[in-house]
Records
---
Amino acid sequence: MPGNHGAGVIRVYPDLEALSQAAAALFVRQAQQATAARGRFGVALSGGHTPRRTYELLGQASWKDQAPWDRIHIFWGDERCVPPDDPRSNARLAREVWLDRVPISGSQVHPIECAAAPAAAAARYEARLREFFAGGPPRLDLVFLGLGANGHTASLFPGAPVIHEQQRWAAAIYVAEQDLYRVTLTAPLFNQAALVVFLVTGAAKARVLKEVLYGGYDPGRLPAQLIRPESGELRWLVDEEAASELK
Ligand code: 6PG
């Protein structure tokens, strides 16, 4: 297999459960290391269904008891602009299966609140991130991302203007097929992260995963290819079904 775009490390797990165990372990390890080194841990979460089991595990005793919750700051890589209790809300999922079950202060959980005025919400979220980084490098310690069957990641959708963003860290987009506004962090910010981890499962992702990793560089069509940490690491945690076309 020739080298993949961005030289990410690919790890293949038998199924979603094994992948989720690995992702939860990685979260806790990164949190322990970052807090030991820098006193805090900033993470951006992915939306979608794939990380649900990882989040559940992080709310359960074996993992929960090992994480330094008082120094963890939770951000989101993207949000669907719906009311906070809407089933489509990415923040709601994480809250329900994980964050409401661990001793983290509400002041350390930073949902993207974009149900009204998405563009203003994106600007507010960027301001919140700037405050968090306080003039230092805008380096999240960990970013979880998913991969859509059409090559999107976070809410960086094929053909959307936001994929060309060079300056802003957060932007609003309208996704016509879903008749939904979304707010997403942008590639320039994701690419400053210390570690970016894609979680990809299921046969429906096999073809796009192969294209993103080994096809020609075409981020207009496959925005996930924009993710290439400048000095951080890129890892792909995938299950056997998603990896089936890589062999
Ligand atoms: C979202 C996302 C999005 C997601 C992919 C994969 O809010 O929809 O953050 O980028 O990660 O669409 O979604 P699944 O995990 O549901 O396949």
---
Amino acid sequence: MTHWHILGPGAVGCLMAALLDKNGIKVTLIGRENSTGFQTLHYQSPAPNSTTSTIQVEYTTTAQLNTPMDVLLICTKSHSTKQPVEALSSHITAHTTLVLLQNGLGNHEWLAQRFPENPIVLGSISHGVMKIARDKIQHTGLGTCQLGSYGQLKVSQESIAPLPDDDEDWGMSWQDNILQALWYKLGVNAAINPLTVIYDCKNGELLDGAEREARMEQLAWEVESLMGYFDITPPTDGLIGLVKQVAKRTASNSSSMREDSRAGRITEIEDINGYVMRKAQEAGLNCPANAEVLETLQHWQDEKRDD
Ligand code: KPL
């Protein structure tokens, strides 16, 4: 049976552990904490019929892992990826499939260069999930989990695991063009996340004022023009249509970037609007709204670090 190792026992990593375990797939979580062996993880399913189930998950650390891996699912924050993946590299054999499931873009290019012989799968997840205690996650909203092959070596859905595509809690689908799905997510995050930090508001409140909405439109419009350059077909209602739909659907959410910023953690701005700016430079396009939010958030982050 395929054994999945999940790097990053945060909310998404634990959700994936719970969903994989529920579907009979062997899972080990890899974290920083020096407590290894089997530990209890409580999973609270979404309301209104919320129930809590308990699973026993194996935990290990990068230093203590001592087996080659079948599948390495990377769920770390995008800015904390390279170092722990390097630390695991002696357990990545030619047979290890690397699955990247995180916000922002850029690490997929590094992964393909660093591990050119390995099958690579990219993913985009829209489930709502919160880690409410060290050993407890709350699945706050059902969503989807899109996966797809990336790079030279084509990976088929069947080859990584019998992933359930008929399980409602999972919302799993295999995409032939996963980069397109990831650009859509990048566009949504680039237009919503930094503005929720700047206006210190929930996602839905970005639709409450003309200035906020205009800035959101401009950010989305710039990403959409970049998509054209990289041969990515925009969503049917345009990227701005998708952005507004997500802002409405997740109206009461406080974005991950706002939460990171409030908690004084490094935000994913470099892997979201920063990635947009790196691609804009490659394409020779101007993206002034993305440049502005990037600069503002970088500046705020540096100020907090100096405090
Ligand atoms: O992905 C998100 C995030 O917060 O990172 C959105 C879609 C904006 C939902 O909050």
---
Amino acid sequence: MAERILIIEDESAIADALVYVLGTEGFEVQWCGLAGDGLKAVQEHPPALVILDVGLPDQSGFELCRQLRTFSDVPVIFLTARKEEIDRIVGLEIGADDYVVKPFSPREMAARVKAILRRSRATVLLTTEPATATPFQLDEQRKRICYHGVWLDLTRYEYLILSTLLRRPQHVLSRAQLMDAVWDDPGASFDRAVDTHIKGIRAKLNRIAPGEDPIRTHRGLGYSLEMQAAGVRR
Ligand code: CA
């Protein structure tokens, strides 16, 4: 079955060129001109990859990408026209997989799409490897975490909190440290939000390995991950 690419781009000339070239490469292509329609499309019918314009009429591509990352790990390639935007894509952890600067060659875009899909298929194959001694595997490239051989279905914040704990197993991290590590604007959140996300992560871990509960609460201090060795796959 053909892999489906979703293009979210308001300039029809650019979208037409992409629809054409990706179609000739054997992809099924869907095009939305608005961020709102793109969000709905990803929710209703998850694509294999999203090509996302930064400048959309109803919302910025950055905002849309953040929203997508709360529920989806779909690879995203940004389309951008300006140097300042590249700095944001590269400098901030928005969750993009690649970017292409306008004007661009549709053939080059098709090559990038294929490269990223190859990469994400390779990541999926890792899940079939036999379980190792450590129950966690952190896939930083694709921003997901494997627990006892099962990919966790984490929200973006849950992923960021758990990966922060995984990078420093046996260390107590305070709520403030966890917030600083994960929030774009730490001032906007409260300790209770960390507790809520930890609760969500625990529930998901417990579904896979009931009663194991590797996250320890240190009253008045914070949280730690009690694992001998957390596997980090880069
Ligand atoms: Ca645009």
---
Amino acid sequence: MVGFHGTVGSAGEAAHLVPAVGRLSYGGDYNPEQWPEEVWPQDVALMREAGVNLVSVAVFGWAWLEPAPGEYTFDRLDRILDLLHDGGIRVDLATATASPPIWFSHAHPQTLPVDVDGRRLTYGSRQAICPSSPAYRSAATRLTEQLARRYHDHPALALWHVHNEYACHNAHCYCDVSAAAFRRWLGKRYDDLAALNDAWGTAFWSQTYTDWAQVQPPRATPTSSNPGQVLDWRRFSSDEHLACFIAERDLLHAISPGVPVTTNLMSASCANLDYWAWARELTGPDRLVSNDHYLVATDPREPPAQIAYAADLTRSFAGGPWLLMEHSTSAVNWQPRNLAKPAGQLIRDALGHVARGSEGAMYFQWRASRAGSEKWHSAMLPHAGTESKIWREVTRLGRHLAALADIEGSRTEAPVAVLLDYASGWAQEAPNQPSTDMTAFAEIARWHAALWRAGITADLAPPQADLTGYRLVLAPALYLIDDAAAVNLRGYVERGGTLLVGPYSGMVDEYDRVRPAPLPGALAGLLGIRVDEFHPLPAEKTVGLAVAAGPAGGTAGGPVGSTNPPTASGIDLLASGAIGLVWTESLEPAGAEVLARYVDGPVAGQPALTWHRVGAGLAWYAGTRLADGPLRTLLGALAGRTGVKPAHPVPPGVEAVRRRHTDGRSYLFLLNHTAAAAQVDAAGTAPLTGTDLLTGDRWAGTGTIPAGGVVVLAEQPSGTR
Ligand code: GAL
């Protein structure tokens, strides 16, 4: 039987993620170059008042540090690092390579990125860089080397911050330099042109390549580019940015050994980089995973569900603790309507990340800028100054993080894995699919949110990962699946796992070529089904689902257990008049049992939900996208059958997440997202006894979380007093 606690990555339980800080990190981006030096001592004094212990310095400071070619002026950086050190504040020192100075871009126009239409973009904002440019790469590593040599033994240095949000604005560059790099990358992937032609299916539309020189990026062309070419292009672009990171990282390791290196990812908002590949380069000795996260007002998910997804994903990249490098104290400035956070949300948001493995909370940025594009972005020290709601909450959060010292190194418990594969998402969201509504990345996040609403904490995992530790594995959107992943999923189920697969999965191989019949290709045998034809729904149309006639639907509820046959009363989603969205398909069981059928729509009467016993486990399939309500019901029911429980039973609007040390000490984070106080009680075997680390209050079987508040209960093991 599968065990309880799964992890994806390989990080060990280190005492301190950032050893030179030695506790949870607190601070933000600090841009002293935007301020006269007289302001700096005031900054340091206020940082101390707020409990700040780490700041990211010079993230966009290249022009400040190298005002003219090869002329490095470090005196001001020397002074601010000394000042910070004297104030007891550690530094996450940026390599400043995310935005070259104007003089550089002006002198090297070939380093500016070219878009898909062949338009060369210009300087004047940030990240105006072609990631494949040798001129950019050598200028960036020169600056990195200078910084590393000068500051590797500075006592304030705690962490190296490479670049900033790789690919945030320049995911793909279509210039000739990139084209040549793409050909070199393809040359390594495919032995010869015949293999490339085969992989890309170039017999179609007379696209056969007869010379490597003919191969180019998928630039604008009269109609859709070759999907295999686009898929490889996306892999290539991710690798090019990663190569930039590795070059800087390796220099830092060589010159500044023992100081951890990171780069800030955008786990939930950037699907342009294959972050599983990045995670391999960001874990291990002297490296750590860090992440930036911003709430999006138009996202259909609740703000804390957005945070939970970003944090769970980042923790999964790290395989353990990680660092929240940026988020916002209140409003951002880059959405159409930038919503301020109501009182209390600043603290809940930060501790929501901490509950899910972040070893601290950092912000963009320390002091609000007076000029530039981000002058109306919130900061720790807002334009309103210290007589402000934000400052009061910032100082309170500083005290809270100091009070949470004991949680460092503990791990968030997550008994479920949700599968995410970047190449699969890229292929599925390419043009010319059966329905543009069949998004991949948003659907994965939607399933995660359904679990979150059911109170269940999940990891994310690539489909090739070792899934042994998870009781339940979900594959919401796995259109592309390579052979290794197919074997992995079968093995997981055979050994007793429960797998639920969403529609349109298993269809194509790693080159985006349709797999041979029967559909769904790589997963047909495991799921015990045959798909005959897709019937996507017209926009906004839904279909009804009903309990299937026959044994599965007709029997009374049997005993709960992952290997017992499901019954209608065991999975009662159908009682609620479940509906499906976006997609249906005509489907025949080929070994699977049918739990639900469509009552209307293009394939009325056909199976919508099936299960298939394989070895010691069950493989479930949903042939439609269940609406949020029934999806939550189904996931909750599967969790129940597999023994997956919420961290603690809580009233609606309260979130419960547990972190645990390997020696058993555990911490229950209770976040009250409602405007009323919430009472939480002991339940069954969950005793709810311990001390709230934030207030020192004792809980003995019951307790109250203030409206909008947070409790972090250091749990007392049962049987002790
Ligand atoms: C991030 C970026 C920061 C700042 C922030 C604003 O993407 O790393 O430099 O621009 O967004 O929300």
